[in-house]
């Protein structure tokens, strides 16, 4: 395959580069390094081309497509750093997605894989959330990603949009796991929002991505998840146990205004259509993640949610 990966220097993108490159596929990464890291996609690696720039730059995107001639596109680039920067979110997540979708059509790409946030479902009526639940995003990130996904799904390229649970693995630097790991180790206080999330190990994600790249596989919208909800307090307890530190009582606080009580996705349509199911348990997923932090550390912590005011 010749795989063009937007946002390929990010957490998911770089894990995919590390998976596909040794298999002999050619890869082009287009990334503006807003949250991705240059050093994870170094120059001089055989089979890997890295282009610095934005998916909002139509001429650059079209040049990447015409020079590289991708057979597959993975659209992983997304802006989310500043929840108040609506314009940047709209530019990267809506306009950027349109530019990538149109370029893919023009280049006769065989398959386009888009990554979508579970925040597209907003506050759902049913949990676990089925893939055909209505979209009701209410944050800048969620709204812009949802519009971007809808444009992508209108294109002529065979397209699959994956609504992702919290993917957990190398280079993850956002969310409760790295936050608790850092704060508990430093003896700092923590709080747990009274919410549930669905944590999927990177190995399971890589596994399903292999299936998604298959040319005649189904297209459409799919949840990629374990379907199993775990509370943020479960994560806190697992991190404290791993670190063998007694952090004392931790307050469990109601979710913030821009948070959602339970983001747990129902993967049954994906399991039925693709014959894929997650295999790595929650405990093992957390253990692998923390072992990775022990070995590599945590570089930067970004979040697309605003912290409660008292923090
Ligand atoms: N990691 C998860 O658990 C998860 C869950 C739901 C959805 N997603 C989606 O998966 C994708 C990848 O997420 P991630 O966790 O790897 O985040 P990430 O921040 O590590 O990766 C995003 C990458 O996109 C790049 N980028 C941002 N704006 C860009 C632009 N305008 N042009 C080119 N590159 C740009 C960033 O520099 C970064 O390398 C995103 O679309 C995100 O919405 C991820």
**N→C terminal distance:** 47 Å
Question: CATH homologous superfamily name of the largest domain?
Answer: NAD(P)-binding Rossmann-like Domain
| CATH A-level architecture of the largest domain | 3-Layer(aba) Sandwich
Shape: globular
**Structural Rg:** 19 Å
- Given helix and strand content, the structural type is alpha/beta
**Could you tell me the number of beta strands?**
14
| Regions with little confidence, pLDDT below 50 for 5+ residues | 307-311
How many domains, in number, for the residues? 2
State the CATH class of the largest domain.
Answer: Alpha Beta
- Please list the strands of the largest sheet in the order they lie side by side: 3-2-1-4-5-6-11
Distinct ligand kinds: nicotinamide-adenine-dinucleotide
Q: Averaging pLDDT over every residue, what do you get? A: 94
Please give the share of residues in helix: 25-40%
Strand content: 15-25%
Describe the protein.
The chain is of the alpha/beta class and 311 residues long. Helices cover 36% and strands 17% of the residues. It has nine helices and 14 strands. The protein has a seven-stranded parallel sheet, with helices on both faces. It has a three-stranded mixed sheet with strand order 12-9-14. Helix 2 (58-68) packs parallel to helix 3. The termini are far apart. The model is unreliable at 307-311 (pLDDT under 50). Nicotinamide-adenine-dinucleotide (NAD) binds at residues 6-7, 9-13, 30-36, 54-56, 76-79, 92, 96, 115, 117, 145, 164, 166-167.
